[in-house]
Amino acid sequence: AIREVQIPLLAAMLIGACLAKLSRVLRARSVAVALGPTALFPLRLRRPVAMAMCATEMSLGIALLVTVGPLGAGLPATAVRGLTAVLFITATGGLVELRQRRPDVGCGCFGDLSMTPVKLRTIARSALLALAAAATVGVTPLRLPPPGEALALRAGLLVAEFALIAMLSPEIGEALVKLGYSEPC
To answer: pTM for the full model?
Structure first.
């Protein structure tokens, strides 16, 4: 059951991260604001890398959802889930490198909300998502569980994992600060 809930969780995280970055870029009208790990690249590569990262997140998030059902068996699903694991493993390595080389830069994972410099808990969140993605490889096509214990177990696991991810996310604190802040008249 725990392996099954990873697929919708990862899809939500990937699509949410892409939309948050896209929202930030649209508000600023510049891809330059989407720094994060792209700060490790030469200036001329930052824009294409940021665009590729966002496109990859959205593509994998949608592909995870498409391969969750009847298409969830065989090579397409294995490829999508494997690529998702590779993405999160790479992200974890990138965050470690970013923390060492540019300790002043946030991870950029969720656009405006990811301004806090990378800490161990941000790296732990990425590693947790890498493990979750690796656990999805080989999961059979998903079906909605019947109402009752099986459904309650999966819903409970999903809520518990979202809570764990929230505890590892500095973005939650930043979002609460932004909600409570109002500009003076």
So the answer is: 0.77
